[in-house]
Amino acid sequence: MRKTMKKAAALVLGASMAVGMIGVIPAAAEESEIDISEHVDLTMYLIGDRTPDFDEVYGKINEILEEKLNCSLSVEFLSWGEHDTKYSLLFSGGEEFDLIFTASSWCHYEQTVALGGFEPLSEEFIQTYAPDIWEVVPEMAWDQARIDGEIYMVPNYQNEFGQDVMAIRGDLMEKYGFEEITNWDELMEFYKACAADGQYASQGGPWYQYFQTYGLSTTGGAPKAGELILYHAQDAEDLEFTYLLDWDGFTDYCKQMKELADLGAWSPDILNSSDERQTGLLTGRTAGMTWNLGTCRTYAKQANAENEDWNVVIVDPVTEMPKKVNSYINNGVAINAMSENKERAMMVLNEFYTNPEVYDLAMLGIEGKHWEAVGDDQYKVIDESNYGVSSNCNWGWNNCTIQRTEYIENRTPLDDQYDAIMEEWNANVKPQHPYDSFNFDSTNVSTQFAAVEAALGSYYDPLVNGLVDDVDASVAALKDALESAGIRDIIEEMEAQAAEHVAATQE
Question: I want to staple 103 with a disulfide (CB 3.0 to 4.6 A). Which of 107, 407, 424, 481 is the partner?
Fold first, then answer.
């Protein structure tokens, strides 16, 4: 019903705009009745690293934006290693930009909203400057993006599994006597075998695999990108939060990681490393990497293409666990509250999200150079290394209604494995938990939240990577520091908001 009302409202709004707005340039006349006669230059921040052909690809995108919207777009990147520390500085430092990638929990959405960094997006604003997005994005996604009733991001529209897997060198698995790795104990034995052979297993401890083994999931908006306070995602009736410093499992994990670190399962200097997640695998420094299923396949294929004897495979150490589908706000794009061109920024995002030509460029690169079309809805890779499929943070405007799927002419065992995993996961989706769509708003405890984040920086990363002399003493020190910082105030506020959220979802 609401969708029909949305369409009607858009028609009425469009008719009134046609009467009231002037100054339209000819190139945009058929696309919009909005005044875009003044040329503007926009800036967007993305997460990751610029690929070699990125500027060439975005030069093509800018040709379209210049013609349709009389604007240009420049892109800056925050690398995986620096976005945790530099993201908030863009706003506190008054950096001039317009659009930025964001995500619930892991990429600063709730925290930046609490700081007042994002522009609230009214339904009228979205309908006016991004009418195509308004028609595509499901109502559920807009509702997930609301904080205190306001929308602060345009969420992506794609069903995405919230489950990390691992890309691991099959030749090393064979060397160490492993046919498969399907659970935590097998993974630990593999890590020890790597260390005994003088081979780094990974770029740090497999923390997510550990707590996912217990059915736990990060809580949107909680400190440390949701990791400090978890919930039992596999049991929709369990509404208790798991605070790590009250959970014996956290200490158990840290002790296992210290054992592995002491054995040499990863570099003792990893806390000072700026390497991307895939670097260790691709250079051969580590036996594997951890990421989502699609990205693991991408880098596994690259590693196999460059090293034919490695036979990199995909490993799921929590094979039997039903899988969580991420909320739509796991990827998205926001507008800087300080932007002087909010309307044009929204119109540009509308192009990225719903214009197939722009969408293909941002996701795949230049047709004929990086990829070629197969039919109307598939693509075949020509050059994977210089641009890469979905390797340039195009995830904020994922749109499954126009996204091409890969045509694989010469399939490999890795492709078959990927398809088999996807089939298994789709047949084993976990029931919805009320907290799957819950996002904590830290505004009322912003002082305590900042203090907790600061305290975590001294203790947390060394602990989860086993790089401490005494685990029990370090856990105790972290617990004391977090108590002093006000963690109990945060938990109390989170429990109150969660209760309100559950009550609202049951109305």
Answer: 107
User: To the nearest whole number, what is the mean pLDDT of the chain?
Assistant: 91
Place of tokens 């795949």: 364
The pLDDT tens digits for 396-411 are 999 999 999 989 888 8
Q: Examine residue 370 and state whether it is found in any structural domain, yes or no.
A: yes
Residue 135 sits in the same domain as residue 25: yes
Q: Residue 71 sits in a domain of what CATH number?
A: 3.40.190.10
Number of domains in the chain: 2
Q: Are residues 134 and 263 in the same domain?
A: no
- Dist CA 68 CA 62 (whole Å): 10
Considering the domain architecture, whether residues 193 and 251 belong to the same structural domain is answered as: yes
Residue 254 CA to its chain's centroid (Å): 25
Q: What is the per-residue pLDDT for 11?
A: 38
The yes-or-no verdict on residue 21 having pLDDT over 60 is no
Nearest to 436 by CA among 231, 246, 202: 231
Q: Which residues pair with 405 in a beta bridge?
A: 378
Does residue 470 form part of some domain?
no
Which domain does 217 fall in, by range?
Answer: 164-322+408-436
So what's the pLDDT on residue 507?
58
Is the same domain home to 288 and 221? yes
Given the structure tokens 């963690």, which residue do they identify?
487
CA distances from 180 to 285, 404, 455 (A): 21, 32, 39
**Distance (Å, rounded) from C-alpha 65 to C-alpha 25?**
13
* Domain co-membership, 309 together with 260: yes
Compute the CA torsion angle 456, 458, 464, 469 (nearest 10 deg): -150
Tell me, yes or no, whether 151 and 12 share the same domain: yes
Residue 24 has pLDDT above 90, yes or no: no
Round to whole Å and give the CA distance between 173 and 194: 9
SS3 107: strand
Residues 362 and 229 occupy one common structural domain: no
Question: Is 8's pLDDT higher than 80?
Answer: no
CB 82 within 8 A of CB 274: yes
Buried/exposed 440-450: b ≥16 CB within 10 Å, e otherwise? bbbeebeebbb
Amino acid at residue number 153: M
Q: Most confidently modeled of 39-53, 92-106, 142-156?
A: 39-53
Compute the average pLDDT of residues 457-486.
97
Query: Do 208 and 257 touch, CB atoms closer than 8 A?
Result: no
The crossing angle, in degrees rounded to 10, of helices 248-263 and 471-485 is: 130
CA nearest to 178, candidates 317, 348, 12: 317
pLDDT digits (tens, 9 = 90+) for 287-341: 999 999 999 999 999 999 999 999 999 999 999 899 988 889 999 999 999 999 9
What is the Cα gyration radius of the chain?
Answer: 23
Res 9: pLDDT: 39
